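Sample entry (209 residues):
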Amino acid sequence: PDTAFWGFDSEFLPTGRTGDPASVHSVQFSDGCNDHVFLESPEDLKKWLLNRRRTLTDIFGFNVLCDLGAVKEWLPRDSVQVVLYRGKIIGKIRYGSACIKAYDTQPLLLNFGLRRLEDIGEVVGVRKLPKPAFLGLRKWRSESEYAAFKTYALNDAVITARAIKWLIEENHCDPRIHASAGSLAAEYFSFPKRHKQQHGRTLIPPIER
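Predicted structure, serialized as tokens:
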């Protein structure tokens, strides 16, 4: 069976403040195929993470810091951490026995000239939908607004999931490994390292300091 790559996205009020879970409207996940999840509350997110604790280890976002911030608002204190490792931003989500790493697809996609989800959607065959007029200003107020919002939000997660599949399977670029096209090229062509390492420190020649 095909490998599932899970994309995630969130919708929130840009004017929201830290410590205000109500400013997050939704968090959504998709495997890019048939499994799509639209979560509307902290309780929904917690339940879903626990249900997936044995099978979900990696998720991928586009400009992942924003979406990690939304997840952080919905989980207990210190459940979400962000680290910088070899030029890559990696999010770590821990809740109960769930332990998930979140990676950012944006740096690699930018190297392909794909700066917006609209551009990415064209490449992976999923058109980005028009943004509902009220989104970013307030929450939905009617069934029709809710339906439009949900469809729009899930579609962004599908595009993100398709993007990571395209990166890894068609271009051999993996955000879990590569920080940029440069790091991919160094691996592919086996470029030698310019600087030596000694006791965990990089030795730089005096002329380059």
